[in-house]
Automatic annotation (TrEMBL):
<protein>
    <submittedName>
        <fullName>411aa long hypothetical desuccinylase</fullName>
    </submittedName>
</protein>
<dbReference type="InterPro" id="IPR050072">
    <property type="entry name" value="Peptidase_M20A"/>
</dbReference>
<dbReference type="InterPro" id="IPR011650">
    <property type="entry name" value="Peptidase_M20_dimer"/>
</dbReference>
<keyword id="KW-0378">Hydrolase</keyword>
<dbReference type="GO" id="GO:0046872">
    <property type="term" value="F:metal ion binding"/>
</dbReference>
<keyword id="KW-0170">Cobalt</keyword>
<dbReference type="InterPro" id="IPR002933">
    <property type="entry name" value="Peptidase_M20"/>
</dbReference>
<feature type="domain" description="Peptidase M20 dimerisation">
    <location>
        <begin position="203"/>
        <end position="315"/>
    </location>
</feature>
<dbReference type="Pfam" id="PF07687">
    <property type="entry name" value="M20_dimer"/>
</dbReference>
<dbReference type="GO" id="GO:0016787">
    <property type="term" value="F:hydrolase activity"/>
</dbReference>
<dbReference type="InterPro" id="IPR010182">
    <property type="entry name" value="ArgE/DapE"/>
</dbReference>
<keyword id="KW-0479">Metal-binding</keyword>
<comment type="similarity">
    <text>Belongs to the peptidase M20A family.</text>
</comment>
<keyword id="KW-0862">Zinc</keyword>
<dbReference type="InterPro" id="IPR036264">
    <property type="entry name" value="Bact_exopeptidase_dim_dom"/>
</dbReference>
<dbReference type="Pfam" id="PF01546">
    <property type="entry name" value="Peptidase_M20"/>
</dbReference>
């Protein structure tokens, strides 16, 4: 059992690295790492900067695994794994993602990739999601290195690509193509979700289903609607019908999750009518569904197809259904598993707080570990500004989370 004296010593060392942590986060934010799916060039430049930092530190091993993607810079999506060996064979993985979402609109504090420090916060796209985790995990290990301390268990830091668009070139690719990297008794922390008090430990996620439905009618002049089939009107009826049906049929509640029910949200719409006087011959919309694991996504898709067929045939129209993303929720991490109990212990020791264990509607790559039988938890101290304009990371959260991560390696 590690002593409080050692934990205090490590905490003081992390405090001394505060300014360096902020500088590192600023440098990383300056490098856009946007998926080709969003029109970006990928994570290559950001990975190179991070590798430069990792190679300046005494890690025992640093490896890069490049997932091929011809759309990305140099044709690859990099995934970095760095090891700092411990006194035992047990391993603690801490996983962060390199990619960020597009900047969006509405920024007022600074430009998305021109980070600034203001009021104890670092502003910029990717600061909280997931730059905070990258920096916290990196400096948790650096503090141990600076003090000459070997952790109780080996720390494996992974910095992966493509989290924001499904992990096809990130952790999913690593697990599929390099299964030798992972062991059943690994402990896994994903610092990509939480609350502002740092008290929420996520052990379960809902299934994710993104559906794009395109209604196909017949374009016509708006003054002669009888000559066309208004895809917009049909799609509107279809959207409302699906929204009502899905919420009514799949209405079970489970208090483990927040929110406790399945959600079915229409999010995007589009049609080619470029003028008010054109009846659109096509209209498409997207549903983002976050579904309790009790329900079958195949059954939901079957219900959606049935309703789409009934409504479009009524108007002599047709439709296409495209599944943009699907992730069937795996079995939750046992709330009494070792990684959960270690994290609870660290939070009690360092913050004197009683954590809450639960599930979420969002998806993280913890799900990929749960799917192969490795218990994983999602935890961080966040103000939850991810994907918003004026995204920021609190400097205090970066520093204090690093202390918890270091403690996890020592307890």
């Amino acid at each position: 059992m590690v002593s409080m004296e050692v934990l205090d010593k490590v905490a003081r060392e992390i405090d001394s690295l505060r300014d360096e942590m902020v500088s590192t986060l600023i440098e990383l934010i300056k490098i856009p790492a946007i998926s080709p799916d969003f029109g970006g060039t990928g994570e290559y430049d950001k990975a190179e900067k991070l590798l430069e930092i990792l190679r300046s530190l005494p890690f025992d091993k640093v490896e890069t695994f490049n997932a091929p993607d011809p759309r990305a810079k140099n044709g690859v999506r990099p995934n970095i794994v760095a090891y700092y060996y411990g006194e035992s064979d047990e391993r603690l993985w801490i996983l962060s993602h390199l990619d960020v979402v597009p900047p969006g609109e509405g920024w007022t504090v600074t430009e998305p990739f021109k980070p600034i420090v203001k009021d104890g916060k670092v502003y910029g796209r990717g600061s909280e999601d997931n730059g905070q985790a990258i920096v916290s995990s990196l400096y948790a290990v650096k503090a141990l290195m600076d003090l000459g301390i070997r952790p109780k268990r080996t720390v494996v830091l992974a910095f992966v690509s493509d989290e924001e668009t499904g992990s096809k070139y990130g952790i999913e690719w690593l697990i599929k193509n390099h299964p030798e990297l992972f062991k059943k008794d690994d402990l896994v922390l994903v610092p990509d979700g939480g609350n502002s008090e740092g008290t929420f430990i996520e052990v379960a996620e809902k299934s994710i289903l993104w559906m794009k439905i395109k209604v196909k009618g017949k374009q016509a002049h708006a003054s002669m609607p009888h000559k066309g089939i208004n895809a917009h009107r049909i799609a509107s009826e279809l959207l409302v019908s699906l929204d009502k049906f899905l919420h009514e049929k799949y209405s079970k509640r489970d208090q483990l999750y927040d929110p406790p029910e399945s959600t079915f949200e229409p999010t995007m719409v589009n049609n080619p009518a470029g003028s008010p006087n054109v009846i659109p011959g096509e209209h498409e919309f997207v549903f983002d569904c976050r579904v309790l694991p009790d329900y079958s996504l195949d059954e939901i898709i079957g219900d959606v197809r049935k309703i789409c067929t009934e409504i479009t045939e009524k108007y002599k129209a047709s439709y296409d259904l495209e599944i943009l993303q699907r992730l069937d929720a795996p079995k939750p991490t046992d709330p009494n598993s070792k990684i959960v109990n270690l994290l609870k212990e660290a939070l009690k020791l360092l913050r004197n707080k009683e954590p809450i264990v639960g599930g979420i509607g969002g998806g993280t790559f913890a799900a990929f570990f749960r799917k192969i039988g490795i218990p994983a938890v999602v935890w961080a101290t966040l103000d939850e500004t991810a994907h918003q304009p004026n995204e920021y990371a609190k400097i205090e959260n970066i520093v204090e989370d690093a202390k918890v991560m270091a403690a996890l390696s020592l307890l």
